[in-house]
């Protein structure tokens, strides 16, 4: 402040100024000094009217001195949020000021310029304030860079915070999902263990079925062999039944022929009976004749008696023959009837055996098909057993992989938790960087 007053006094003395209260009356030394300053500078009187405007401020604001001088300083360099220029404030207060904040205003081209203002009052020789000089340090590039840097910082912070929030959300989601997956994987491990146990039991069952199928196949083959033997036996029985039937028919024919011969014998017996009757009659007549001859025909009587005895014996034998023939006739009739009945039964037996043979052929065919089917089932069951063993092995591998997956999921969940902690640390670091950047930018 003292140096400023000394300077003012010096300016006034060199310039041969007076105390009429007008800065324009200051000497050419002061005017040359203002013009020679590399920084933008202008002078206002006590009313805030511009009296001096150097080329640097003309370049900064795009307004030449010929147009600026005579205008109100605030109209030329109005500052947002301020009611007067710093020069006007200094003129009013009489105290020099160096502002820490920036002043911003639009130039003639409508572009915003930024400056840090320094102002000091101007005094006449008698010490009275006649105006003020204001220096504008152009910090537009710095402010714009700071603004860009702040925008970049804000954008970066927002993007990082958004990314961190998304990552945190994803991490939380992954953690939750990892817990779910871990639970599911654990359940799957248990289920796979159960499945593996079931498959092992199934494999054993399949092997038992395969063994049973092989046994059944062997039995079916035995049934097939027995069926073939049974068919052969049945065919033999059919042939024998046919032979017996033929022999039975022959017996029937013989029985019939025997009946006919018995009838012929009966006829012979009747003839013999007739002869015997006639012989008896002759014997009787002979006896009668012998009696008439009064013993003269003794020999004839003897013959007659012998004839009678022969006739009686013939009758007796004829009766026996007749009884025998009658019995033979009955036996022959019964034999013929029995033979016919037997023939019918043999025929029925033959038909039944033929039907049995056909049925056995069907049974043999079915048994053969069953044998083939069971063989196929046995083969398929063997294949199934092999497949079951492979599935069991795959289930073991799947259970092992599921266990590894469960461990990996647990590790992933722990890594997620670690990542969440690191994200919190990153977020805190970003907040510290933001705060430090704000301090640095605000302090520039």
Describe this structure in words.
The chain has 444 residues and is of the alpha+beta class. The chain folds into 2 domains: 2-138, 2-Layer Sandwich (Beta-Lactamase); 192-428, Orthogonal Bundle (Helix Hairpins), CATH 1.10.287. It has 8 helices and 6 strands. The protein has helices spanning 2-15, 28-36, 55-61, 65-68, 73-76, 86-93, 140-292, 298-442, and strands spanning 40-45, 50-53, 97-98, 103-106, 112-123, 129-138. Strands 1, 2, 3, 4, 5 and 6 form a 6-stranded antiparallel β-sheet that branches. Strand 5 and strand 6 form a beta hairpin. Helix 7 packs antiparallel against helix 8.
Q: What's a quick, concise take on this entry?
A:
This protein is of the alpha+beta class and 444 residues long. It contains eight helices and six strands, in the order ααββααααββββαα.
